[in-house]
Amino acid sequence: MKRHDKERPNKASAGRRFAVWLIVLAVAAVLIRLALASRYGGFMSDQELFVDWMRQVRQRGLGTVYIEGSNINYPPLFLLIMEAYRSAAGLFGIVPAAGELSFKGVLIALDLAAFGAAVLLTRSSGRTAGRLFVLALLALNPALIFGSAVWGQVDMLHSLLMAASLLLLPGSPPAAGALFALALLSKFQAVTLLAVFGIYFLRLLLRREFRPPALFAAGFAGVTGACAAFFAWSGGLQAMLKGAYLSAVGMYPQVTMNAMNVWYYFIGTPPTTPDTTKVLGFLSLRTAGFLLLALCVVYAAACLWRSRMDAAALLKSAALVNFAFFMLPTEIHERYSVPALVLAVFVCLYDRRWRLPAVLLSLSVTANLWMVQAERIGVYPGLAVVYVNVALLLWMLLALGREMRAGRSSDTADRNAKGRRKARAPGIG
């Protein structure tokens, strides 16, 4: 009884220390972002476009803005968030302007909301150093800070929703389905999770476990159905689908749009090479990139199939698929690496071996973003980033492969043990 009495103050003290660390991280995250957002204008063309979208939504309404507006090629969730921010800022007489804190405030708020969501999503890990590492890498990550507070982009939104969907999938399929729908309503890149979800639910269905897939589908349908009904009622459903998901496809037909991937001189292709260029006389570079991605997705799916199908395995497979999506297809932008980074950070919650790769990936993404935003892209500095990224992709492939082989060895050992037990069992005679 006395021992329990001693343990309670220790637990309370540990809880207070952990809470203090969370407050320190949150405050540091906000202050750093505010300082950088105030000092650096960022990527003005993106921000000017977003501010113009705010104006168009205010004038025409969200339901018809895709019909009557122009140059809107993001899904509606971000437009809805920006309109809510514009309305709230207007109460204080603030008019969002590109390159100013008045606009970047919405991005900083999203980053802070993502940190708060991460605190909740990692609660099952307790007050551990591993959990604190993950939260610190999210709050103070130079790539995530640069992407929002300096550049002025919103990649953290769909990236966090993707990670949250995978984290909740084993225990709460309806919430996972709803979050995946929100991720798709934030950015179409979230579609990369379909391969992961497909393998997960296929295995459940083969085991005749029908309830989790049905619950996931219900959560997904609830969100997407409400969105579709809203735009259909406004008459803008077809225009929304075309503008948000189809209009940007094939817009930049070159091998890479500033992404430091395999197409950036690594295999001898300058970035401006048209991806319609034929190789072997019949295969375009664009098709070759998709074939490489398909091979990587099949590999990740096979590794996931042989795993325990827990949150760690889901995150690892998704991180590999998303990093392969950044590294292998053509026409990829520099910011498409952010979801892979966020997923890799959450993997660190379960596997210490991913910590160094997650840090290196953070630095390579930061370098890529800075080079583009500062217009200081050099061939050899860019290639240095490419070599780091290629090494990280190979490491992910090998890491998942080792785990798949270990799973096979474990299954074989279990089967052999069962066989020996049967052989020793007395017969009926």
UniProtKB/TrEMBL annotation:
The chain crosses the membrane at residues 101-121, 133-154, 174-202, 214-233, 279-301, 313-330, 379-400. Residues 418-429 have a biased composition (Basic residues). The keyword Nucleotide-binding does not apply. Residues 410-429 are annotated as: Disordered. Keywords: Membrane, Transmembrane, Transmembrane helix. The keyword Plastid does not apply. It comes from the Bacteria. This is DUF2029 domain-containing protein. It comes from Saccharibacillus alkalitolerans.
